[in-house]
Amino acid sequence: MNQRLRQAHHGRADLHVHTTSSDGTLSPDQVVREAARVGLGAVGIADHDTVGGIEAGLAAAKEVGIILVPAVEINTDFGSDEIHILGYFIDHRSPALTANLERQRNARYERGRKIVERLNDLGVKVSFDRVQQIAGGGAIGRPHVARALVESGYAGSLNGAFAKYLIRGAPAYVARHKLTPFQAVEMILEAGGAPVLAHPGIHKHDELIPELIEAGIKGIEAYHTEHSSVQAEHYAKIGRQHNLIVTGGSDSHGPDNIKTVEIGSVTIGMEAVEQLLCCSSTQQKSTG
Ligand code: AMP
Ligand code: ZN
Ligand code: FE
Ligand code: FE
User: Fold this and answer.
1) DSSP 268
2) Whole-number Å distance between alpha carbons of 19 and 28
3) Contact at 8 Å (CB) between 111 and 176?
4) What is the Å distance from ligand 4's center to 283 Cα?
5) Ligand 1 pocket test: which of 142, 177, 251 has the largest number of ligand atoms within 8 Å of its C-beta?
6) Closest residue by CA, ligand 1 atom 16
7) Residues with Cβ within 6 A of ligand 1?
8) Which of 116, 118, 241, 250 has the fewest beta carbons under 10 Å from its own?
9) Ligand located closest to 252 CA
10) DSSP state, 172?
11) Model confidence pLDDT, tens digit, residues 15-31
């Protein structure tokens, strides 16, 4: 075990990690073990539109003695842009939440099918069965289609597959089921969680922040892999001004993915975890 690595991360939290339950490459169990290995005190599993990885994450966290922060990342639309809303300490067993997320995942499934149809119309022979296999039962996303394209030789890399076929404006692009950020905030509040605006530096819609606060967001993800230090400071300041919890995370999707981002490469102090727990109405006892 790398002692220096452990010390650097000790008592810190990476609140934004994806698993195989959505488009990450590590299982919830592997994510938690990696978080413990690098010395984190807490890790947030925040998969796209699913809480399917939380139970396994909680079990692993109990074994290795770190805190698993149950979370979800809901993809929403604002005009032609995407806004992501994180939900922390949600009651992952809430029937309303699981039903809402299931609807989102069904929409992802339908969209995946449509993307494959478009590809087939273009003469690109990938099958939806294969895409589903790659997704392994998790929430289907474009990265899974990208993987199918690469393995069949239609693109040289996952990024290439996106650029050629999957990005907005590309020939096989299909829009996702529309959900507003406000609906996502509502879904998270309803499930007892603390809604947090994800990586605002990517979305670049600062004008929405006051409305989102009114809708009930409790935090802002100032620290994120894609934020520059100037952006991080900008959003941390906005957070402090509005009394929001300032959060952070790597948004790691695991190794061997579109971009490899190490778990623990972006962290926040453990006080953020406490604040999020205080702000949520489900005081989960399962945090080891
Ligand atoms: P989806 O949820 O199906 O819309 O896919 C979104 C995921 O695709 C994001 O989490 C990124 O990991 C990945 N992604 C989005 N845009 C690109 C891009 N231009 N190049 C590579 N990956 C991308
Ligand atoms: Zn993702
Ligand atoms: Fe995101
Ligand atoms: Fe993410």
Assistant:
1) E
2) 6
3) yes
4) 24
5) 142
6) 167
7) 23, 48, 75, 141-143, 159, 162, 167, 176, 253, 258
8) 241
9) 4
10) T
11) 999 999 999 999 999 99
pLDDT at 8: 62
**Residue carrying the six token digits 């490459």:** 25
Angle at 177 between CA 176 and CA 182, to 5 degrees: 110
Token pair belonging to 287: 């945090």
Q: Tokens 């702000």 — which residue?
A: 279
Rounded Cα–Cα distance for residues 274 and 249 (Å)? 15
Computed over every residue of the chain, the mean pLDDT equals: 94
| DSSP type of residue 252 | B
Residue whose entry in the numeric block shows the structure tokens 């006892």: 285
Identify which ligand lies nearest to the alpha carbon of 158.
Answer: 1
**What is the residue whose two structure tokens read 């809402």?**
100
At 68-125, the pLDDT tens digits run 999 999 999 998 889 999 999 999 999 999 999 999 999 999 999 999 999 999 999 9
